[in-house]
Amino acid sequence: MRVKPCILQHLHLDKTYGMLTGKNVRTLMEYFDLIDVHQDGSINDIQFCLVLGAMTDLKRNQIYIVFDMLDIDGSGQIDFDEFYLLICILISLKDKDEKQFIYRHSRTVFELLDEDGSQSISAQEFSAFGFLFNFYGDAVKQIFNDFDISGDQELDYKEFKMFAMACIDRQNEIDRLKREEIERQKRRREAKALKRLAAGGGTWAWLRTSSCTIV
Ligand SMILES: [Ca+2]
Ligand SMILES: [Ca+2]
């Protein structure tokens, strides 16, 4: 998930506690009041969809998944505390502090991902909700397998805590390898293009053809 330039741009989490400072919380409360057009202290899924659509590149169906994840009491409304938690997650992603956030708030993140409240996270829950923290595909599978020490295909809280410390490092490593591969492919394409140029084909041939047409 990518956080777009928006109101969050100038907000940062306190380095010690991984939460917003009091002043920033007030700013966020004022913003929440503006979104809360019915002034009932909560926002519904339509308002939530508009806000999160403007702040992130999440697709509509993903936004609804996040809504259901945050709406823990199933009221169909998101109150300020739930909104505040989401904003802290988004700020941590924007500032690339998500590893610290997950580590500091591992219990909260664990409860968010444990959708059915079974006190453990199944592979299915992880795949369904992990995108909120930029956990994707093969990296999830690999790390999930590594940290499921008991081998029951579930991460209990202890296992999750170890996972929290290590998983984003692994994700970064996979991303780095991907970037290197893209760079290698780009260099290969450039080398081929130069080869064609040296052999009198490619761009020069196209230019010659174009000139003839113009004349
Ligand atoms: Ca569960
Ligand atoms: Ca386990």
N-to-C CA distance? 52 Å
Average residue pLDDT: 84
The H/E string reads HEHHEHHHEHHEHH
Task: Report on the biggest sheet.
Answer: 2 strands, antiparallel
Q: What is the CATH topology descriptor of the domain at 7-136? A: Recoverin, domain 1
DSSP strand count = 4
What features would you describe in this structure?
By secondary structure, this protein is mainly alpha-helical. The protein has a domain at 7-136: Recoverin, domain 1. Helix content is 65%, strand content 4%. It is built from 10 helices and 4 strands; from the N terminus they run αβααβαααβααβαα. A two-stranded antiparallel sheet has the order 1-2. It has a two-stranded antiparallel ribbon with strand order 3-4. α4 packs across α5 (98-104), α5 packs across α6 (106-113) and α8 packs antiparallel against α9 (157-198). The radius of gyration is 23 Å and the shape is globular. The N and C termini lie far apart (52 Å). The relative contact order is 0.09. Residues 210-215 have low confidence and may be disordered. It binds calcium ion (CA) (2 copies). The site of one calcium ion (CA) has 7 residues, from β3.
